[in-house]
User: What shape does this take?
Amino acid sequence: MRAKSSALSRSPIKVIADEPGFVAIHKAPGIPFQRTGQQAGALELLREIESTAALAWPGRLFPVHRLDKVTSGILLFARGR
Assistant: This one.
């Protein structure tokens, strides 16, 4: 369990809400929304958190909006269309 919480604390994104209809994360500045070259994007980082923690988001997550790479803030992902 310690390794899982350590991995979560190092992530540039933080899950702030995990609700039946959506997942909300806080994205740090400098993290792209989509993968750019070798740098993982926000959704990819969210899936990494899912694989290292006791979290599960079965099925697809759909972005509700985007944030620029230089912007920090809340990103919402819907569980359905």
Notes: The CA atoms of residues 4 and 53 lie 6 Å apart.
